[in-house]
Amino acid sequence: MKPIHVIGMGPGHPDYLLPAAMKALKQCDLLAGGSRLIEAGEPFAPPEVKKFPLKSDLKTWCLQLQDTLRQQPEIQAGILLSGDPGCHSLVPMLHQHFDSNALILVPGISSVQLFLSHLQLPWTHGPVISLHGRRTQWMDVLWHHSFINLLTDSGSGPEVLAKELLEAGHSDAVMAVGENLSYKNQRLMVGSPQEIRQQAPYQMNVVVISLDPETRAQLQQRKNALSSLSRPDR
Ligand SMILES: C[S@@+](CC[C@H](N)C(=O)[O-])C[C@H]1O[C@@H](n2cnc3c(N)ncnc32)[C@H](O)[C@@H]1O
After folding, report:
1. Does pTM surpass 0.90?
2. Nearest residue CA, atom 12 of ligand 1?
3. Which CATH number fits domain 112-227: 3.40.228.10, 3.30.950.10, 3.90.550.10, 3.40.50.10800?
4. Phi and psi (nearest 5°) for 13?
5. How close is the Cα of 72 to the center of ligand 1, in Å?
6. Considering the domain 4-109, what is its CATH architecture?
7. Which atom of ligand 1 is found nearest the CA of 86?
8. Partner of 128 for a Cys bridge, out of 75, 110, 149, 206, CB 3.0 to 4.6 A?
9. Ligand 1 shell residues, CB under 6 Å
10. What is residue 234's predicted lDDT score, i.e. its pLDDT?
11. Residue stretches of the chain with pLDDT short of 50
12. Measured between alpha carbons, how far is 229 from 201 in angstroms, rounded to an integer?
């Protein structure tokens, strides 16, 4: 079996796809991953590239991929992951099914990294927590660090987080939402929990929350500038 490229696809737009990722995609005979990512990777892959779309049952999907690659060891596979493979990705699961030395990780630009750059805030302000399929005690983490970056899923969107902040008495928190980052329908928002609730519903997004007065002031200052930030052209 050939080593598998595990490719960080960035937030979605090709402007944020690293040249190393483009090079790896060019070598692939098979693209495995979510359909949004396969669509983003296809233009960089050979025309006859095969597709192996992600199924909701991740374990079965990994086992089927493993089988396919065992049966056809000449295939060069690329597993496409959103953002950076080092940020709350499938890599720990891939380690359970593939020899880690048979995986070549290609880093990508994380959705959190892109959003923080729009907000002009550093990575180092607070932890990055994923709420995918889990109800992590994110409020405790926020309380401890005064600042948090959250990867949300459909059950933990900004309006749900805003409601929980209000119920906990944090109406003075400042929230920022980066929705559909790098896409045409991108929305960048800064507001109080009450304001963020009013802008629901949300699609794919990351959320930044601050309780710290200095960062709250910085975020408020970015609020108007965000609406005029240009997006990459399609
Ligand atoms: C499984 S996590 C993977 C995170 C990824 N490894 C990264 O570095 O961005 C998927 C979550 O990342 C966030 N995400 C990924 N791409 C995004 C985008 N273009 N715009 C907004 N959020 C995005 C969303 O919170 C989504 O639910």
Report:
1. yes
2. 151
3. 3.30.950.10
4. -80, 140
5. 31
6. 3-Layer(aba) Sandwich (3.40)
7. 6
8. 149
9. 11-12, 81-84, 87-89, 110-112, 132, 151-153, 178, 180-182, 204-206
10. 59
11. none
12. 22
